[in-house]
Amino acid sequence: MDFKIKAKTPAAMRHAIEDIPGDKSISHRAIILGSLSSNRVVFTNFLDALDCMHTSNIFQMMGVPIIHSLIDKTVMIDGVGIHGLQQPEDPLYVGNSGTGIRLITGVLSGQIFDSQIYGDESIQTRPMKRVIDPLTLMGAHIKGTLIEGKKDIYPPLTLSGNSGLNGISYTLPVASAQVKSAILFASLYSDTPTIVTEPKKCRDHTENMLKGFGADIQVAGKKIRCSGKNILRNPDTNTAIHIPSDISSAAFFIVLGCLVSSSQLTFTGIGLNSTRVALLHVLLEMGVTLKIQNQKGQDMEPYGDITVATSALHNIEVSEKFIPFLIDEIPILAIAAMFGKGTLKITKAEELRTKESDRISAIVDMVRNMGGTIQEFPDGFELTGPSEFKEFKVNSKKDHRIAMSAIIGAIASGKSAVVEDCECIDTSFPNFFDILRSLNIDFELE
Fold it and tell me: Does residue 292 share a domain with residue 152?
């Protein structure tokens, strides 16, 4: 499916956007923790995109009763407890989800039964040694696939059952919430404590949610300690747990709102976890008019409303401290920088090369195809604006964040454009095009 738009100066937008979908990272963890809970859990605002539905299907294949209501975006899970999962009859398919395969591999490492987990063509090239190494130290038995000319280990992964894991003290070689979470989920199957040390702080949804479900987990700076012999339990079965709307999805329209003349957009109920709001800090440094209101803190994650208005942008060198919290938003930040004055410099972001695509290469191709000036580095890029936009064609490389970023760039620049292979957007943002239509943007999907 290709997105096509004809040259047209976008009209001013003054809207409240209330239907940004639920947070993808939290929705994955909701299925996992709800399944491992010893009682019923109901989550509202669950993201019913492909990635999260694959995670749900996997736990249903392992015997967990899960009921989705697609009308009101709720999911009801009758948890089977940590030791209640059953051996699946078939290999477990994660689709395009790197979060899914890494987190679920942590859970599978502690099971007494054998299993196999795999994904689509993109997942088959995602490096897994970073997860396999610590899980093997804990006593897991995992075999992966070797690819000629590469030094890592790749899916499909085959896991042999075992009677229990041992706790470890492990320093992450890279700041990765996925690797950290895999270890923490595996630690639930250990009799002894596990300590994970982060080189830099990264997303902490797993720690927050484990604590909310009663796990004995302590966070002190960059160290996370999770004791063995944990039992997970929903503390209040009479109250649904609300999943905030995804700030990584809202980011595309936040940027659009600051680029289109005479516009103001308000986004309601957006997740404001401190490890997820780096984009807002960076945009403020770049001169964006932005405010946060109606902050709330229900259950395990804070959320609130974000309002953004048309702004004159100036580009900056993004601080290294923001990069682990900004990794999913860098493609749309590159689009914002194309409208700004000066140079946006991104470094220490080599993790981008291991995402759904090689995102550094994909960003560089996207910007150049749109008429921008950008220089590629092994760990990032320098982008100098403002760009002289031209009619363009961009291939998404089957990466949802590249596809959506290119679409926002096409709309904001007012140029005719084609963005190829947009089916991937369904992995994280199934109503993306519906929101575009609500903003009176004319386009075609072919």
Answer: no
Portion of the chain with pLDDT greater than 90, in percent: 90
State the burial class of residue 239 (Cβ atoms within 10 Å of its Cβ: 0-12, 13-18, 19+).
Answer: exposed
210 plus 259 within the same structural domain = no
Mean pLDDT of the 90-104 span:
96
Q: 365 lies in a domain?
A: yes
pLDDT in tens, 378-394: 999 999 999 999 999 99
Task: Measure the CA–CA gap between 418 and 394, rounded to whole angstroms.
Answer: 6
Mean pLDDT of 155-176: 94
73 assigned to some structural domain: yes
Q: For residue range 392-406, what is the model confidence (pLDDT) as tens digits?
A: 999 999 999 999 999
Q: Which tens digit of pLDDT belongs to each residue from 293-338?
A: 999 876 578 999 999 999 999 999 999 999 989 999 999 999 999 9
- 196 and 263 fall within a common domain: no
CA distance 257 to 384: 21
| 380 and 350 belong to one structural domain | yes
SS3 398: coil
User: Which burial class, exposed, middle or buried, applies to 446 when counting CB atoms under 10 A from its CB (0-12, 13-18, 19+)?
Assistant: exposed
Burial 215-236 (b: 16+ CB within 10 A, else e): bebebeeeebbbbbebebbbee
Residue 239 domain-assigned (yes or no): no
Query: How many whole angstroms from its chain centre is CA 446?
Result: 27
Q: Are residues 299 and 175 in the same domain?
A: no
Name 242's Cβ contacts closer than 8 Å, sequence gap at least 6. 43, 44, 45, 298, 299, 303
Assess whether 191 carries a catalytic annotation. no
CB 131, CB 152: distance < 8 Å: no
Ranges of H-type helices in 62-204: 98-108, 129-137, 177-187
Same domain for 212 and 100: yes
- d(C-alpha 335, C-alpha 322), whole Å: 18
The DSSP 8-state label assigned to residue 192 in this structure reads S
Residue 230 lies in a domain: no
Which two tokens mark 334? 């590159």
Instruction: Count structural domains, the chain.
Output: 2
Whether 331 and 434 share a structural domain:
yes
Question: Are 12 and 28 in the same domain?
Answer: no
Q: How many residues does the chain have?
A: 446
Q: Of 328, 365, 399, 426, which is the active-site residue?
A: 328
- Structural domain boundaries enclosing 170: 24-219
